[in-house]
Amino acid sequence: MARINGVKREHAGLFVRLAYFMTKRKVGKVVTPIKIVAHHPRLLRAIAHMELGQEAAQSVSPQLKALLEVKVATLIGCPF
């Protein structure tokens, strides 16, 4: 459980709502770290740029990326 409450959708600005929508579409729900970082929209924007840049990287095949994501998630005990 996080020590900081996340930003609720009804209190979020336009960019934060867009980030929530994209996260829900990609992951299936709005994860707590995104809700917490939403307190600082500029930081959320920087994280979004980093994520998009990592997705766009073409040095590794998409199949290998997916396999590595699953492997890392199991190693660190990530629930998704």
Tell me about the largest β-sheet: none
Order of helices and strands: HHHH
Tell me, rounded to a whole number, the average pLDDT: 88
Count of alpha/pi helices: 4
Strand content: under 5%
The outline comes out as globular
Helix content: 55-70%
Structural class, by secondary structure, is mainly alpha
Question: What is the radius of gyration computed over CA atoms, rounded to a whole number of angstroms?
Answer: 14 Å
Terminal CA distance reads: 16 Å
Instruction: Tally the structural domains.
Output: 1
Q: Unreliable stretches, pLDDT < 50, 5 or more residues?
A: none
Question: Count the strands?
Answer: 0
Descriptors for this entry?
80 residues, mainly alpha, 4 helices
Task: Summarize the structure in words.
It is a single chain. With 80 residues, the protein is mainly α. It has one domain (9-76). It is built from four helices and no strands.
How would you summarize this macromolecular structure in one to three sentences?
The two termini are 16 Å apart. The protein is built from four helices and no strands. The chain is mostly helical and 80 residues long.
Task: Provide the fold topology.
Blueprint: H1 14-27, H2 32-37, H3 41-56, H4 62-76
